[in-house]
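chain below, 251 aa
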Amino acid sequence: MIASLRCCLVACLVFGAVACSDNTDSPTSVNDKLTGETDLSFTKPGYSFVTFFNLSEWFPNQDESVRDTVTVLENVNGDVTLDFRLTIDTNFTLALDTMLGTTALSTEMKRAIIDTYLGRYGATLDTTDKDNMRITARPQLRVTSEGIQDYISSRGNTSQPFTIIRYSMKVGDSWSFVTPEGTTLSRRVVHHSSEEDYWVGFLGLKVFKTEETAPDDPLVEKIVWVTNHKFGLVGIHLHLKNGKEVPIKFL
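prediction:
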């Protein structure tokens, strides 16, 4: 579901050093707070998630290089706070630097990219121990039986959710959101399964795929959010500007 969520995005990006709606809703109503059931099994405080990194092409020793923990810290009527902790080592950062194509950048440029992503996702980075560098964050989302929204785009403002999916949506529906910095983000439903065509481990799921453009992002061309009405967010796929795709799946 929401394991690692955008913080997994931070993990894959931070070390790069490291609307219009086609349905009957207006963009404002699309981003109104979701209603529906809020007491879901995977949003109960203490619930932990398993993350599936399929990055063996670039990280052959990923099990030793990446250790993550994602737990539901709090659920207040559907507003869910996650406790995210990621531990990585220098092998991971070097491989990630190569994958992202940032090896030729200066240290100053890499630092600027890191700071951009840390600020955008409310994360902190501790590099004191190079073999146990830690990224921590507490992202917030709204998760109900009707769909999923994030408060990351509004920098934690819970009065301004940005919809990832409403399960009543159809392929082609699109909507937008203006960040506090004035950047317009756009999302569009590009896929809705008619059969179990998305696999997380040995589990086949019917899913929605929501595509998000990433304007002015230094490394990412687009993000594809993968959601399921029973398990919530089950995948996030990063499409990089260098043509590579980074899939992250979780339950």
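The mean pLDDT is 85. The CA atoms of residues 63 and 86 lie 12 Å apart.
thats it, cya
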